[in-house]
Amino acid sequence: MPKSDARIRSIIPFCRFNHIIQEMRKRLKYLYSGSEEKLLYMCDSKADKPDKDIQGMGDSETEKPNKKIVDMGIYEVEKPDKKILILANSDGGLYRFRGMLIEALLKLGYEIHISVPDGECIPLFTDMGCRFIDTPVDRRGLNPKTDMALLRMYVGIVSRVEPDLVITYTIKPNIYGGIVCRRRGIPCAANITGMGAVFQKRGPLRAFVTLLYRAALKNAKVVFFENGEDRKTFERRGICTGEQSHVLHGAGVDLAYFQYAAYPADDGPVHFLFAGRVMKEKGMDEMFEAMRRLRASGEDCVLDVLGDYEEDYSSAIRQHERDGWLNYYGYQKDVRPFIRRAHCFVLPSWHEGMANVNLECAASGRPVITSDIPGCREAVVDGVSGLLCESKNADSLYAAMKRFLGLSRGEKEAMGKAGRRHAEAEFDKRKVVEETLGCLSERTERSDIE
Fold this sequence. Notes:
The protein has helices at residues 3-32, 36-42, 91-107, 122-128, 144-161, 171-184, 204-217, 228-236, 284-296, 314-323, 336-341, 356-363, 394-405, 409-426, 429-444, and strands at 68-71, 76-79, 83-87, 111-116, 131-134, 165-169, 188-192, 222-225, 245-247, 270-275, 301-306, 326-330, 344-347, 368-371, 386-389. The protein is of the alpha/beta class. The strands form 3 sheets. The chain has a 7-stranded parallel beta sheet with strand order 5-4-3-6-7-8-9, sandwiched between helices. A 6-stranded parallel beta sheet has the order 12-11-10-13-14-15, sandwiched between helices. Helix 5 packs across helix 6, helix 6 crosses helix 7 (204-217) and helix 9 crosses helix 13.
C-alpha cells in the first residue's frame, strides 16, 4: 500500500472522531448559551406540559399509588411523598450494587423512580415499590444524536416526575442527568463508579469529557467516589471541589448473601476464577498468557470464566477450552456456586472504581489476586489475604499465580479467612448504606434522611 493511502486511512478515524466532538460541542454550546426555554425547545419538551409520548414516559411508568397515611398517635395524617429519581445505565448493576440503598430509601417513605433500560431485574424493583421508567442508554457509544436523545429524554422525565433529589450512576447519566438538574435547579447526587477508559489516555476525548463533567457537576450537592485516587483526579482537573466530594468504600458487599464458604479440597486441579466483562481492559490477554505459561510449566490448574463478551474473545476462549485449561460459563445470575468451587479469584484489571467482585470473593473466603491499582488494591492485604500484581504485566501476574500455587492448602485457606475478616471490617454494605444516607442528609439538608 502506498504511504499516502496508509496516511489517509490513519487520518479517517480521527476525522470522524473530530466531527463527533465538533457536533457535540456545537449542540452543548447552544445548550448553555441561552435560557431554560431554549434548552427545553432544543430537547423538544416543555417544562409545564411534558410530552407523554416520550419513550419511557408513557405506559412503562407504573401507576401512582395512594398517598401514605402515617399514624401520629391521636391523629392520622397524610405523609407527603418526597420523590427521588435514580438514573443509571443498567438494571442489573443497579439492583445488585444499590438494591439495599434503594430499599432503605423506600422504608424512609420516599417515592422512588428508577430510570434505566428495561431488563430482568425490573420486576424486583417494582415489587419493592419503585416506579420504573424505561430509558434506553447506549453505554459505550459516541453518537451525538443518541446522546442528545438521551438528554431530551431526561428533560422529559425530570419534568414529569418533578423529583426532590436526583441520584445518578455511571458516566452518561452523571453527565446528561447532571446537566438537566443544573438547568432546573434540582439537587443532584452523582456517583463516580470508575474512571473508565476515557481517562486513561491523553487526547481530545478526555478533554471533552472533562468539560462535560465540569458542566454537569458544578452544582451537584455531593459527588460520591469509590476510591481516593479517582477523587483526586476529579478535583485536580477542576471537575468538582473537595467540599462536594465524598469517598465511600465502593458499594460494599452484602456479608449475609456472600457468606464464608469452606475452602475446597485439593483433590484435583486448582481452580482460578474470573468473573466480569470479558474484555481487554479487564486483563484478559495477560490472564491467558499467564495461564499458558503455568500449564507449560506443568502446573495442574484451570481457569473458570464467568461473564458476557464486551469484546470478541470467542475464538480465543474456544481454543483454550480445546486446550483443556479453560471453562467458559457465560453470564451467571448467581456466582456463589462458582466461588465456592474456586481456590482463588483473579482480576488483573487496568482500571476500576471499586471492583465489587473482589469484595464478594474475599467475603466468601477466597484469596484474591488482583492489580495494584486504585479500586482493586483496597480489597487485598498483600501477602495476607491475597496477592497484588502490576497492571498490564503478564510476567507479574504469572509470578503471583505461581506463588499462590506454591502455597500449602492451609496457607491458602488462611488467606481466605483473612479476606473475610478484611471484608467485614472495611466493606460491610450496611455500613456503606448508612454512610450514604448520612451524607445525603447532610449535603441535601433533608432531616428525614437518617
